[in-house]
Design brief:
Layout lengths: L6 E6 L2 E11 L2 E4 L7 H14 L7 E5 L4 H11 L3 E4 L11 E6 L6 E6 L1 H7 L3 E9 L3 H13 L2 E11 L9 E2 L2 E2 L2 E2 L1
Parallel strand pairs: 4-5, 4-8, 8-9, 9-10, 9-11
Antiparallel strand pairs: 1-2, 2-3, 3-12, 6-7
Helix pairs in contact: 1-2
C-alpha cells in the first residue's frame, strides 16, 4: 500500500521532524505534532524551553492532558519546578474538582477541563506557567487560564512547543516555533 500522506518538514530545538498534514475540515489542514513516545524531541524541547523561561519568576507548570504531559514532565525535570495536569475527564477520586468547558480544534467538540481537588490548594496563590504542546485556536489555553483563575493562581507566562495559525495572535507565547495552516 502506497503512502499518499503529505508532510510538513520542521526543525524544533535542533531536531528535524516531518509532521503529517491532517484535514480538520474541507480545504483546511494542519500539521500534527505528536510528542508522545518521542523522547529525543521532548528532551530537546524541554532544554530549549527551560532556557527561554529562565527570566520568568514562577512556582509551577500547568498543562492539560494528554499530549503535552511529556513536555510538562521533562520541563519539570529541567527546571526543578513541579507541574500539575488538568484532566479532560472527571473521575470520582478527583473530589470537588474545578471545571471549565472549551472547544477542541482537533475534535470540533466541547471538552471540559478539570483541576483535581488535591491540586486546588497546591495552585492557590501560586505563579504559574501554562504549557501546551501546540497552541492552535487558544481554546485549551483559555480553559487553563479560567481554571487557574478559579483556583486563585496567577498566570505569569504561557508557553508551547509550537504555535499555529495567525502568528501575530501568539506574540506573547513563549515558544520554539510556529506552524502555518494549510488551505487548498
Amino acid at each position: 500500500m502506497e503512502n499518499t500522506h503529505q508532510y510538513y518538514s520542521i526543525e524544533i530545538a535542533g531536531v528535524q521532524r516531518n509532521l503529517r498534514l491532517f484535514e480538520i475540515k474541507p480545504g483546511l489542514r494542519i500539521a500534527i505534532l505528536n510528542i508522545l513516545g518521542d523522547t529525543e524531541l521532548v528532551q530537546a524541547c524541554a532544554r530549549a524551553l527551560a532556557a527561554k523561561l529562565e527570566t520568568v519568576d514562577y512556582d509551577l507548570l500547568v498543562t492539560a492532558e494528554a499530549k503535552s504531559i511529556p513536555i510538562a514532565h521533562a520541563l519539570s525535570v529541567e527546571t526543578g519546578k513541579p507541574y500539575v495536569i488538568l484532566r479532560k475527564s472527571y473521575k470520582p477520586y478527583m473530589g470537588q474538582a474545578l471545571q471549565v468547558e472549551t472547544l477542541s480544534i482537533t475534535t470540533g467538540q466541547p471538552q471540559t477541563i478539570y483541576l483535581d481537588e488535591k491540586d486546588r490548594e497546591f495552585v492557590q496563590g501560586k505563579r504559574v506557567i501554562i504549557l501546551d504542546d501546540v497552541i492552535s485556536t487558544g481554546s485549551t489555553l483559555q480553559g487553563m487560564r479560567l481554571v487557574m483563575g478559579k483556583a486563585g493562581a496567577r498566570v505569569v507566562a504561557e508557553a508551547a512547543i509550537l504555535t499555529e495559525g495567525e502568528r501575530a495572535k501568539w506574540a506573547d507565547i513563549i515558544s520554539l516555533g510556529h506552524l502555518p495552516i494549510f488551505t487548498d
